[in-house]
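Example record

The entry below shows one chain as it appears in the dataset: sequence first, then structure tokens.
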Amino acid sequence: MQRLYDFLRRHPTWVDSFWAVVLFGLSGVSVVSQSRVPGHHMPMGGGWAVSAVLCVVVALRRRYPEPMLLLALVTGLAQLVLDIETTAADFAMLVITYTVAAVGARWASRLALFVSLTAAALAQIRWPDHESSALGQLAIGVFQTVPFALAWVLGDSMRTRRAYFAQLEERAARLEKEREAQAKVAVAAERARIARELHDVVAHNVSVMVVQADGAAYVLDAAPDQAKKALETISSTGRQALAEMRRLLGVLRTGEHQESGEYVPQPDVEQIDDLIEQCRSSGLPVDFKVEGTPRPLPSGVELTAYRIVQEALTNTRKHGGPNAGASVRLVYFDDGLGLLVEDDGKGAPHELYEEGGADGQGHGLIGMRERVGMVGGTLDAGPRPGGGFRISVLLPLKPAH
């Protein structure tokens, strides 16, 4: 039974053709019976022809709604002119009115409404009931007009309902695409965040390890105790780097920060002291001062501040030269956190800070700008007037919109 139903849904013209055949049979009975009624002079040939045409209208109404409406209109006018009284086939007028109102063009729907409101009146005028009074004939015309009006209203309601469901489907499809786009953007943003984190972790800790390894190799024979201390610094720095990388990999696997076991919390402002000490132990003199009243900050601001200081000191170690020194100022404002990192070295090459880097270089400054932008802050980076390099950052304490 379900197969038959699905077949009929896929072939609506076959269903309409079946009902057209049934209607043609009823129309034939109507034509024969009216031709035998005394006082009726309806031509048999004309009756059969009109019935056949109107049944074709029923059969093809869903495939060609507008042409079938025009065909039904022409057939109705021919009935009026040739004095071919209404038969059962005229039921096709109701059917085509509903169909055009439901699926036809707007002009065809309006035409069907006009015809449906005038057809019954024209038929009553053309073939009046002589046994009824004028008031009775008016009542009959109104009564015959109601089915046409209801057919049009029902069809127009179906059109509105289909349009509503189509709009819902379109909206659902659009929302699904938006969700997919947002998911892709979120994935890209997360990948960029992880890439920045890995860059900061690897660049800083590896540079410290390289400096300590070079120092250990230089004093290995002359000062074994200093070489041992350098190797211990390399070991602790490597462990710290591995711990942070495990934390990042844990975020990738679980989507959350795990603070137990081998994973460590995100760095914050309080750990800047440890970062400064690590840089000092690697041979980079750093002057660190905190101004204002320290207080808890949003985690995103704390992580950004830590990474900015980390990357700035890494750049000083890379580009400042062997005798460079640095200073870090952390300022707590009422509505923000200020960072000022300066060094007295030879400064970074121009292409590393102009426009955020060029030709694959300057990724550290690009990452800084992205981090600061994510929390709605501002960053200014460039050479100092007296030599060296300067990075100034202002991080607002309210989330960026």
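Notes for this example: The radius of gyration is 43 Å. Residues 113 and 133 are 28 Å apart (CA to CA).
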